[in-house]
């Protein structure tokens, strides 16, 4: 089994993790500690792991951008 653990820091880590969880497959687990989102991915092959990590990074980029934009919008319109 091949494994990757991806840790990223966010101003609203819980929101980012919540946005990512619907796309988690049975081979993935995501948790949050303070401002860190930690996702572990396990796949049988290196190619499968690479493909899943690539998809995850795209989803992570979108989730983080939306969460940051929403946070900035709230602050400028309060």
Look at the helices and sheets and give the structural class.
Answer: alpha+beta
Query: What would you give as the CATH superfamily?
Result: Alpha-D-phosphohexomutase, C-terminal domain
Name of the top-level CATH class: Alpha Beta
Query: Helical element count?
Result: 2
Q: Give the H and E element order.
A: EHEEH
Rg computed from alpha carbons, rounded to a whole number of angstroms: 14 Å
N-to-C span: 49 Å
- The side-by-side strand order for the widest beta sheet comes to 1-3-2
Concise account of the structure shown:
The protein is of the alpha+beta class.
Task: Please explain how this structure is put together.
With 78 residues, the chain is of the alpha+beta class. The protein has one domain: TATA-Binding Protein, CATH 3.30.310.50. It is 50% helix and 28% strand. Strands 1-3-2 form a three-stranded antiparallel beta sheet. The radius of gyration is 14 Å and the shape is elongated. The mean pLDDT is 93.
Q: Keywords for this structure?
A:
three-stranded antiparallel sheet, 78 residues, elongated, alpha+beta, TATA-Binding Protein
Chart the SSEs and their pairings:
Blueprint lengths: L1 E8 L3 H8 L7 E6 L2 E8 L2 H31 L2
Helix pairs in contact: 1-2
